[in-house]
Give the backbone structure.
Amino acid sequence: MEIKKLIDNSTSERLRELIDNSKKISITCHMTPDGDAMGSSLGLAHTLSALGKNVYVITPDTPPHSLDVLPGIETIVIASRYPEKTRNLLKTSDLIFCLDFNALHRIDRLQSSLEESNGFKVLIDHHPYPECFADMIISRPEMSSTCELLYHVLDETGLSKKINKQAAECIYAGMLTDTGNFSYNSNNPDIYLIIAELLNKGLNKDEIYEKVWNTNSENRLRICGFALYEKMELYADLHLSLIVLTKEDLQRFNYVKGDTEGLVNRPLSIPGIYWSVFIRQDEPDYIKISMRSKGEFAVNKICEELYGGGGHLNAAGGEFRGSLEEALRLFKDYISKETIFIKQH
Ligand code: 5GP
Ligand code: MN
């Protein structure tokens, strides 16, 4: 079996030309970077470095510690810590990759620096409805992760031979995390052909699974246990689960960013629950919302309507600036007024 071709020839040829002709390349991804954002950024950086390119990975803010194991993460430039440096890097880059985001507001404080830069911008992403801010848009919402899409892009620009062990580990980490260890959006046979190629590059997939997916701090396990035991409310008629964690809850368990990663997926394992909502009060007046669903029920639409957010059909999020009570009221009003139809499984 061969990996299917995804990119048209003129795009891949143009992209290869741009890479070959550029002197300084920057790679950016969305704020609060996850495994896919960080994995694709570092995977691309390792590959381009192996080609002899001068490459910088720039993130809007600090990645969670769970990603510390990704090779090269110590080299990234974090915009919230070094605003001037990142502005300069973007200004002087002739090629800028935008990975794993579809709208400029997703890169937060990097937005103005990116807009100011004259560098050629290439978007590689799998979120639906991309904004047209880039000069070249490679958007494939049918891909399970940006890392999967990135592999195709590298392969079809003739760069897959430059993927080394470090790049393979980063790319695999993103594919693993965005599919919940290949438990959803993961029926495309190409995914496994790509993994076979990455294994041939020296990837130890069991090690990445262990480090990225199966390593938890005591606090993380306890806060997730507490959330499921004490805070999960089930609305059987709506096939809905709701978990709300207040600032006090977070403080009680010495919460650090990333501790509740994946929690929102857990209630979907209950038969009859097809919609899971997690509302977290990060600050007294800053609320983060995560939603997951099964089947055709589109949570990206709900996140957009209620909280100006977005994402994928079955995995989306948003943020709310205001009190927890107001954020909850918006949600409770929605479920009491809207006729919510969730297809039975
Ligand atoms: P998570 O629930 O893991 O934070 O995010 C799930 C998905 O929803 C992500 O892939 C991301 O694309 C999207 N998402 C999360 N938060 C936001 C947000 O505040 N705004 C938008 N537009 N998308 C979000
Ligand atoms: Mn992603």
Residues 36, 100, 126, 145-146, 178 surround manganese (II) ion (ligand 2) (CB under 6 Å).
